[in-house]
Amino acid sequence: MKQINPNISPRLKRIGLHFSFWLLYVLYHTILFGYMRQDFLHPLKYELYDLPVKIAASYFVAYFLIPKFLFPRKIWSFAATLALTLLTASFLQRLFHSQVIGRFIEPEQEYFTLYPTTGLVFKTVISIYPIVVLVALIKILKHWYEQDRKHQNIYKEKVEAELNYLKSQIHPHFLFNTLNSLYALTLKKSNQASKVVLKLSHLLHYLLYDSNKQTVPVEKELELIENYISLEKIRFGNRLDLSYNFKGSMEGTEIAPLLLLPFVENSFKHGAGNQLEEVWVDIQIVIEDNTLNMKIYNSKETSLQPNENAHDGIGLHNVNRRLELIYGKGNYKMLQEDKGDRYLVELQLKTQSITKEN
User: Fold this and answer.
1) Which of 17, 41, 94, 100 has a Cα at 20 to 30 A from 114?
2) DSSP per residue over 87-155, as a string?
3) Exposed, middle or buried, 34 (CB in 10 Å: 0-12/13-18/19+)?
4) Among candidates 264, 277, 282, which has minimal Cα distance to 342?
5) How far is CA 325 from CA 23, 268, 355, in A?
6) Can you give the residue ranges of every domain in the chain?
7) What b/e string do you get for 244-277 counting C-beta neighbours within 10 Å, with b at 16 or more?
8) Dist. CA 285–CA 225, nearest whole Å
């Protein structure tokens, strides 16, 4: 059997919708005027007589005048051609009444034997233009809806592309720092190198699989941070004084992946990583009332100028842009503060609560 053209079904549906619209229009007028006159036959006949001209005028305005003049914002041209269209349609309708219906179908009716005059033409305009205006409004609203949906899809695709680009920046940036640590350990022939490889494998699994999701359970993000901290402990050894505290409930709470790691990473790379003596990092995370609060203090070399230690790597600029795209302004607050011998980064983020199905 030959394959059915996939465009046939949408076309039939479109034809059915148009047919239903005009059928409802005829029934509405028939019932309205028939109920007023207690005679439904004559209103039905009059609507059927006038229907071809009304359909032609409506579709001419909707599918020619509006796209050609109104959408390109040629308002005066649209108004002039619309008026001319209604006058022409009214004249043709009156001509059809007098020369066809009045002569061949219902010659006994004086109404149909009248020749089209200027007054009758303008009077007919009043009977034609409401349905033309209605069809035109439907066309305009449909156009606006389609344009709005198109713009939303374009914006969504743009945001998704930018988010994917930002994520792709995080991966090599993070791996570069971790591999540097592993390289240093292999040079020292440290037994810790194997532990670093194991931790790194867990981190890569998260980066390759979980980070592709829109949201992840917050415990997975915190587990990623803990693995990263373990790697930094191995790298810094006894030089590092680390404090990591978590408070609150993680159950049913989700956030966008790879949001918290760059804050922790930058505290080591741009703060502690620049110091030769003892360094310290204090990480505090609290989740309460659907809000995640994270504060990270790290020691910094006081001899560095502010612009030399501004935590301005890819990480924080990256995550700040992702926060803006994913959560929007008002749903998060990010603070960076240089306090001389230490640096503070603070994040307040509204989390998403996930209800489990029974």
Assistant:
1) 41
2) HHHHHHHHHHIIIIIIIII-TT-HHHHSPP-HHHHHHHHHHHHHHHHHHHHHHHHHHHHHHHHHHHHHH
3) middle
4) 282
5) 48, 26, 24
6) 8-150, 190-353
7) eebeeebeebbbbbbbbbbbbbbbbbbbbbbbee
8) 11
- 10 Å CB burial of residue 212 (0-12, 13-18, 19+) is exposed
The residue type found at 158 is K
CATH 3.30.230.10 correct for 190-353: no
Alpha-carbon gap, residue 314 to 331, rounded angstroms: 22
CB 264 within 8 A of CB 225: yes
The burial of 85, by beta-carbon neighbours within 10 Å (0-12 exposed, 13-18 middle, 19 or more buried), is given as buried
Token couple for 7: 């465009």
- pLDDT (tens digit per residue) in 216-259: 889 988 988 888 888 788 777 788 888 999 998 888 888 888 88
Residues constituting the chain: 358
The pTM assigned to this predicted structure is 0.56
Q: Which stretch of DSSP H or E encloses residue 347?
A: strand 342-350
As a whole number of angstroms, the distance between CA 321 and CA 57 comes to: 52
Measure the N-to-C terminal CA separation of the chain; round to a whole number of Å: 48
Task: Please answer whether residues 227 and 264 qualify as being in contact, where contact means their C-beta atoms are separated by less than 8 angstroms.
Answer: no
* CB half-sphere exposure, 224, CA atoms < 13 A: 25
Determine the average pLDDT of the residues in 97-126: 72
Q: What is the largest CA-CA distance in the chain?
A: 113
Cα-Cα-Cα-Cα dihedral sign, residues 201, 207, 209, 215: positive
Identity at 330, one-letter amino acid code = G
